Amino acid sequence: MASYIRWYYAEEDVWCYDELDEQRWSVRHVEQREHDGMFFAAASLAEAMHARDTGGVDAVAAYERAYGVSPERPFDDFTPDDAVEYRFGPIAAHDFERIWLRARQARKRNGGPLPR
Do 2 and 19 contact (CB within 8 A), yes or no? Predict the structure, then answer.
């Protein structure tokens, strides 16, 4: 069963929102700068893997330019030192979906290709 979290990275002034699978890997990831609301990522692990499997490294690079990069480790791997830099908390599924849709629309407007 999926779970949803948000976390703030103060050094970059960025809120991140993630849909996590049962192993706590991010399957969908959003990054939004707090001071102006600009979206920097709306990435899906399934879409990135599809790009890799069908187009190789160039397709993954194009996908990441359009939609950003997802975290590359499970969230249970964060250490106590990470808590100094990040603030974590759960969010409701419907709140994540609302943010995800806004982020995807923003990234598509910024020239991102439509995922398959």
Answer: yes
Amino acid occupying residue 2: A
What residue has token string 């990135």?
48
Break the chain into its structural domains and give their ranges.
3-109
Per residue of the chain (116 residues), give pLDDT as tens.
899 999 888 888 999 999 999 999 999 999 999 999 999 999 999 999 999 999 999 999 999 999 999 887 787 766 545 555 667 789 999 999 999 999 999 988 765 544 43
Q: Are 67 and 44 in contact (CB under 8 A)?
A: yes
Dihedral angle sign, alpha carbons of residues 60, 64, 69, 70: negative
Name the β-bridge partners of 6: 17, 89
Q: Provide φ and ψ at 68, rounded to 5°.
A: 90, -175
Q: Phi then psi for 34, rounded to 5 degrees?
A: -70, -45
Q: Checking DSSP bridges between strand 39-44 and strand 26-33, what pairing results, if any?
A: antiparallel
Task: Please state the pTM of the whole predicted model.
Answer: 0.85
Residue in the block written with tokens 């187009």: 55
